[in-house]
Amino acid sequence: MTLAGKIALVTGASRGIGSGIARGLGEAGAAVYFTGRTVDEAAPTVPLAGSLEDTAEQVRQAGGTAIPVKVDHNDDQQVAALIERIYNEHGRLDVLINNAWRGYEGHHTRTYPPPNTPFWERPPALWSENFDGVRWAYVASTFAAKRMIAHGSALIVNISAHIDEPGYNAAYNSAKSAVNRMTQDMSFSLKDKQIAVVTLFPGLVRTEGVLLYAQYLDLTISESPLFSGRAVAALAGDANIMQKSGQSFWVKDLAKEYGFEDLKNEWAK
Question: pTM here?
């Protein structure tokens, strides 16, 4: 599989799944723009390891071209300016991955109650912290689609979660359900433009935030962030991707379909 000559943009890639996706795209040979707020790990915006520079080094070591860009996705104009920059520099954007999210920040700082806490005992701010990510995906897709329709043959991937049963986190479940529905509606609008829109469901991923709670989790069944990156790369390299538009896919299922693997035993390190 090769994405040589392809231009990708990953939002929220200072660490975690976004960083793994940038690395996976770089591994396939793409030029990868990626956003975040933490430029240098010495000055983090959240109390977690990882930065744009860390991700850039991983992308370069994987064989891709890394273009880190500091972006606050609360500012729509910063997003619009980045899309214009990409088109000014390359004339196209082949893959947009909407990953930016802040619904877990309260858990990273350990200021929020445990996951099994009912919604009325959680802070009201949790709602906006989860739905900010929905808006960020919508805004980035809006600016990108305006330019993508001129050349077609593009892909938008929304990183989300499979919500099929009631749970304690009404804010998170509602936000992820909104992302999943947004994929369906965006794909409907773009179906005649040769722009595919899909949702990707990672499993339990060994992100910096998840590892804060490693003692409570069975990491032997977890995935590396790169596993999601290889899934995105496989989707981006699929010549028949329009047949998948509007659908949702588990990373593990795409691994079986496309024949890629996760990192071996990385969880134990």
Answer: 0.94
CB contact set of 186 (below 8 Å; sequence gap of 6+): 141, 145, 156, 197
190-245: per-residue pLDDT in tens? 999 999 999 999 999 998 887 777 787 888 889 999 999 999 999 999 999 999 99
Does residue 171 carry a pLDDT above 80? yes
- Angstrom CA distances, 36 to 3, 8, 44, 50, stand at 23, 15, 10, 10
Report the pLDDT value the prediction gives residue 48, as an integer from 0 to 100.
Answer: 80
The catalytically annotated residue of 33, 87, 112, 172 is 172
Active site residue 172: yes
Of the candidates 96, 101, 229, the residue with the CA atom closest to the CA atom of residue 161: 101
The CATH number that domain 7-268 falls under is 3.40.50.720
